Amino acid sequence: MTGYGKADTEFQNKKITVEIKSLNSKQFDINLRIPSIYKDKEFDIRNKLLQSIERGKVDFTILIDFNDRLQTGKINSNAVEGYYEEIKAIAQLLKINEPADWFSVLLRFPDIVKMEVAELNEEEWKAVAQTIDKALDAFTQFRVQEGKMLEQVFVEKTNNIISLSGEIENYESDRIEKIKIRMQESLRKLEIEYDDNRFEQEMIYYIERLDISEEKARLSNHLNYFSETMIKEKSQGKKLGFIVQEIGREINTLGSKSNHAAMQQIVVRMKDELEQIKEQILNVL
């Protein structure tokens, strides 16, 4: 959900610049910084951004640069005269000296400089709205490029997990045999007599508890579902996040059931690949 877009236009004596930036967020959270002349259009701007951006922590800014000097504030001569007369009267009343530099004192008072409040006309708003659309187009293109990069990362990482899952098969039969030998050796060390048939039955029960066939099947299904969702659906970020959680559960279960050093190392590598997906999943809209 990171993105950036910028556009500007010239309108009469103004240069209007629109800038849009966004970071990851589960909701649509917008911070607007716009000139007071456009405050009446704030609701329209928010709706336009929501429809296009959908999700993210968004900073939206409109800047105006004036091409002439007529837009500076004007000195309120009536206010200056009023403050001047009051200060003189107070100075005479308190018998203190009048200011040596009247302008430096008077210009500090409120309402000395008054700004002309401009009214927004339809032509100007049309120009601003078109500039916002251009900035949104640039913003969307930025997101599309980011999305393509993320897609490559996810495809690579999910393929790595699938490949690592296949490597586990090389150790499954060896793992069961080692568990069986370890248990028999433990019984011999304790010098306990046991029935071979009963031992085999207990082994079958124990091995069933350590069987990882279902976990591998569910992991494969989750990985396939992740790939399908990534390609087919729009605004799938939250859904992909849920699928990643399910993938993590299956990998954790594989690790807890492995009882084999080489298999546990593979599980660690699978977790590392998944963690890299988690780091980037918040960037998906």
Textual characterization of the structure:
The protein is built from eight helices and six strands. The model has no long low-confidence stretch (mean pLDDT about 85). The chain has three domains: about 5-70 and about 120-145, Ribosomal Protein S5, domain 2 (2-Layer Sandwich), CATH 3.30.230; about 75-115, no CATH class; about 145-280, no CATH class. The chain has helices at about 40-55, 75-95, 100-105, 120-190, 195-210, 215-230, 235-260, 260-280; strands spanning about 5-10, 15-25, 30-35, 55-65, 75, 115. Helix 4 (about 120-190) runs antiparallel to helix 6, helix 4 runs antiparallel to helix 8 and helix 6 packs antiparallel against helix 7. With about 280 residues, the protein is of the alpha+beta class. A four-stranded mixed sheet has the order 1-2-4-3.
Put the structure in a nutshell:
The chain folds into three domains: 91 residues, Ribosomal Protein S5, domain 2 (2-Layer Sandwich), CATH 3.30.230; 41 residues, no CATH class; 136 residues, no CATH class. It contains eight helices and six strands, in the order βββαββααβααααα.
